[in-house]
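Subject: Sanity check before I submit

Could someone independently write out the structure tokens for this chain? I want to compare against mine line by line before I put it in a report. The sequence has 173 residues.
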Amino acid sequence: MDGLTLRHLTLAVALSTNMGLASAATSNNFVDKAAAGGISEVETSKLALEKSASADIKAFANMMITDHSAANDELAALAKKHDLTVPDNTTLVKQAKEKILDMRGESFDAAYANNQVKAHEEAIELFKKEANTVTDDRVAGATELKGFAQKMLPALEKHLDMAKTLQAAHPGK
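---
Independent answer below. Compare away.
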């Protein structure tokens, strides 16, 4: 091999390795953000069950706990299967509780509804980005994470519609 061919081969190997690492980092970034968002949904909804007297808020909160707990478990299993790290639940719960609902003059129900709209808009953006990524089959779990994101989008969109209905029923001051 001449020097030029060797340099091109070295460059090609370096680029493909870096692209694989970037895809792995992207996969782990999605897992981190999706796990944090899911835990946050569960924790804010547990708080809603404690603090709200509204039947519609409580029904929505129960659905969020059920749906997001199941999605969190599925995501954790996918991550474990492909040796992707997920922050532990203790850390995520602590972070979620630190961010829970800025009440500034709003009723709890209005704050919860507003939080749910914002959280689901952010989740849909995150999941759409993952669902539309070009997957690298060399990256562990990339195809399955994309499939997971695609599978979850309809439920997240349904949750957003329901959260907007709650928001309209519980306007802030």
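---
OP: Matches mine. For the report I'm noting this point. The helical segments are 3-51, 55-81, 89-99, 108-131, 142-169.
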